[in-house]
Write a sequence for this structure.
């Protein structure tokens, strides 16, 4: 099974927030094409993984959380999963299967990233300017002219001038 959850969804040092975040679970007994809106936390994720693996709980915190049982359907049949491995991962010496890679041909070289993140404090988590870094990631991974999304629609690239300069 594969569990994917966003780390630090609200940029806070405590990594706990009441805002919603997207999470994905891939596996043979996971409900197909389902959106589960039950309120879960990262601790529910841990509890579910521990139960699946049959290991002891890490602490009292995860021992008393409910597992994410409503994501599963034990009657599922015909499950298959074909991963798409990103090109940067394919370029490493990790033992990944040779499969179709995502196209990152428009990605900037390391020198571009270094220039645009100069002055960022990478010494500790949550020290970089999250809003500016999110815009930088968007601009660095999309073709020029693709506008940055916002909660209420699309903002113009003029709001991202600090990243372009």
């Amino acid at each position: 099974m594969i569990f994917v959850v966003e780390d630090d969804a609200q940029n806070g040092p405590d990594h706990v927030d009441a805002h919603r975040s997207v999470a994905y679970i891939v596996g043979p007994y996971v409900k197909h094409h389902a959106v589960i809106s039950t309120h879960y936390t990262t601790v529910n994720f841990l509890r579910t993984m521990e139960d699946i693996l049959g290991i002891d709980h890490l602490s009292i915190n995860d021992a008393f959380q409910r597992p994410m049982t409503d994501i599963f359907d034990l009657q599922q049949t015909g499950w298959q999963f074909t991963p798409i491995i990103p090109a940067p991962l394919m370029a490493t010496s990790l033992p990944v299967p040779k499969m179709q890679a995502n196209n990152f041909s428009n990605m900037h070289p390391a020198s571009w990233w270094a220039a645009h993140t100069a002055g960022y404090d990478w010494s500790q988590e949550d020290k970089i300017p999250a809003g500016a870094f999110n815009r930088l990631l968007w601009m660095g991974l999309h073709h020029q002219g693709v506008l940055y999304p916002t909660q209420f629609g699309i903002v113009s690239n003029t709001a991202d001038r600090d990243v372009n300069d």
